[in-house]
Design goal:
By secondary structure, chain A is mainly α. Chain A has 11 helices and 2 strands, in the order E-E-H-H-H-H-H-H-H-H-H-H-H. Chain A has a two-stranded antiparallel sheet with strand order 1-2. Chain B has a single domain, classed as MetI-like fold (Orthogonal Bundle). Chain B contains 11 helices and no strands. The relative contact order of chain B is 0.12. The chains are: A mainly alpha (271), B mainly alpha (273). Chains A and B meet through helix 1, helix 3, helix 4, helix 5 and helix 6 of A and helix 2, helix 3, helix 4, helix 6 and helix 7 of B.
Chain lengths: 271, 273
Amino acid sequence: MPIHDTDGLKTWQRRTGRESLSHWIMWLIGVAIFAWCWQQISASTTWFFVWDAPRIANDIWTRATPPRWEYITQLGEPIWDTLNIATLGTIIALFLAVPVAFLAARNTTPSTLFIRPIALLIIVSTRSINSLIWALLLIAIIGPGVFAGVIAIAIRSIGFCAKLLYEAIEEIDQAQVEAITATGASRMQVMAFGIVPQIMPAFAGIAVFRWDINIRESTVLGLVGAGGIGLQLSASLNVLAWPQVSLILLVILLAVVISEWVSAKVRGAII
Amino acid sequence: MSSPDFDLDARLGKPWKKPPFVQRPWLRYTLWMGFVAYLIAAWMTIEVDWARVYAGLERGQKFVLAFTSPDFTTRSSDIYGGMLESIVMTVAASVVGIIISIPIALGAARNVAPLPVYLICRGIIAISRALQEIIVAILLVAIFGFGPLAGFLTLSFATIGFLSKLLAEDIESMDRVQAEAIKASGARWTQWINYGVQPQVMPRLIGLSIYRVDINFRESAILGLVGAGGIGATLNTAFDRYEYDTAAAILILIIVIVMALEYISGFVRARVQ
């Protein structure tokens, strides 16, 4: 324990001299990096606009309130589309994620050397690219519309679901699997009766959790043209119809809150 | 198998059946029926232009092939500039977000803060979590103009909601005995936080912060789509021009950086915990 001794008075310190020096240097480097980053941001900012921001914000606020309530009649179909994108995307993703998860889990993969890295690569690459980017890509390939949104959400969710699922598979109780194997079950039967019942609660939880996230993501997919309520949002933004924008934002907020509530309820019932 | 209505004689001689996941039969069948009905309804309303999809397959193939020969050189200055801007935004926003979220997390922990402060801080967290990054970015671009400042503010704002909530939960579940021991030694409130609370939540704070850096980088890649700076603008342009090899190069860079961040975060989290 580092104790500082001055004129016979011993005081306790948290760190030794060397430790505090290295801490100090680390902080210095950190602060320097942050200062440099801030300079970069500051250099590419038009500060005139920033000083003008309070006035602009006030201006937008007065234009956006009150929301144009009668516009809500035109939002029914986009909301239905949004719900479909999220739900169908989640279902497709789960179908694709299950085999990937079984191939990626250490205790079920057929080959740790070849197949597991491929499965992990699929997980990482689908997870690290945002659904908006997938949507951009799919719109370039299969054209704009709800279908591109569904596929974008599905691809994006594979990595997330497969990662959580393979972690659940790796944590199963091996004794049950062994018991099923001892009865002479085939490989498929071991999976169906030894592994699947153990991961079923985790699977249901992951599905609902991802569905909740997908509702959030699908509300903005329309910004790049992939269907849903985002399409209305970007159309309203383009014509600067702020009362419509504020109404759409309220609807999105409501959808997000409801989906979060549903997901929390369902997960509470499962676990 | 020890349900109260377990009747051995009735079961004898019958083959064993796997117990269903949802126990109550009426609920199980209602769920299935609702699910199938929904699927049919959803499928009916989605208009898929299969001819267009089929025509696009060739382009999709071209895109997949582009991954085998990504083009880093043609637009290297755009890619480099966009990447740098994304990283700068990520670093700055993570630092500012973490600094702001620590006091808010303290305020949102019921065992540290009084009720009025608690409610205000929980309100801030709820607002920040309910609004998505891209929508916040649109509004901030409209207010502050195009450029990385809007992206930086967006990411900072999103970091606050994420980090404060998880950190507040950790503070609420901390060991009270240690904190009380510090208080009993006559510590001031700041000392109590510094020596009683902080050491208990520090590993989690570091782990969450690094995880958030990772998320912020991923998000910074799309903020450019709405004009808030970063690599997203370059990527969007590449897709618009059908320059799949450049787009593939950018996507590969994003994946590599995210993988590196994930590796670093795993390493750091293993060390602090």
